[in-house]
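In line with agreed milestones, the collection of sequences with tokenised folds has grown. One record among many is set out beneath this paragraph:
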Amino acid sequence: MRRALWLAAVFFLPLSAQQDWIVMFNGKNLDGWKASERPENWTVEDGSIVGRGERSHLFYMKEQCEDCEFIAEVNINDGGNSGMYFRAEFGPGWPKGYEAQVNSTHKDWRKTGSLYGIVDIKEQLVPPNTWFTQHIIAKGNHIVIKVNGKTTVDFVDEKNTYRKGYLALQQHDPGSVVRYRNLRMRHLR
């Protein structure tokens, strides 16, 4: 009997925990996503969302994030710059919200894994043109960012600056080409 309970815990609990994740991208088109400006800068290629060209932000419009996790596999070109926004307001220009930076070699010294302008990482954690995972956890005013499973940010925002908003991807500038795949989010209770 104990063995049966142990097997159930090992095999069924992880499956039920995985069911909480919302798949944000179907690998085929941008259903559920909306660009705040310059929608032509976002395409789908080889099962990835690709951003290139002038500044644009692509918002996931089906859900908002209050307390949530947001995870994606990301690939940024040499000299490229991007970001994963959370709790962001939809609109043109630079979104009001938190940004988890995506930058391996761009001239901006804030690198991948930074909570942009709040907790800035100066070291290059991943080389350009390499797939990596960035994972954001936002619960109340506590924010954690992980890159390939390594915690880069563990921050409590005493000001509780942004409480609720959309998740979004950034296309920073004409020299940047960014690819996102396996985008998922889940609400935390």
Remarks:
- The mean pLDDT is 92.
- The first strand starts at residue 22 and ends at 23.
- The CA atoms of residues 133 and 148 lie 5 Å apart.
- Residues 23-187 form a domain with the Jelly Rolls fold (CATH 2.60.120.560).
